[in-house]
């Protein structure tokens, strides 16, 4: 079970790397658009996150449901925005910056949200 958890975590991280890379490659471009890396990265990160939570729930460890809920909500918003704008030739700068901020926020939640021990 631990091997499966690690593989899913690895794929989850790769998904976020692809999403962030797809966003950052356009920083200096005047016209922003949803690219394949963003699409595939958002989908992979979201799906692997769901599967990872399932594996964690099936295991013996405690799951921080608040953290999972926040990451799920942010990830779902990213996925919906990316998929809704996939076929458009360009996206507004505000949407691009919003996707970038949400992606960085989701990564920050994953890293900095540590469980509290009572």
Automatic annotation (TrEMBL):
Keyword annotations: Membrane, Transmembrane, Transmembrane helix
TM segment ranges: 6-25, 37-56, 68-86, 93-113
Descriptive protein name: Integral membrane protein
Organism in which the protein naturally occurs: Nocardioides euryhalodurans
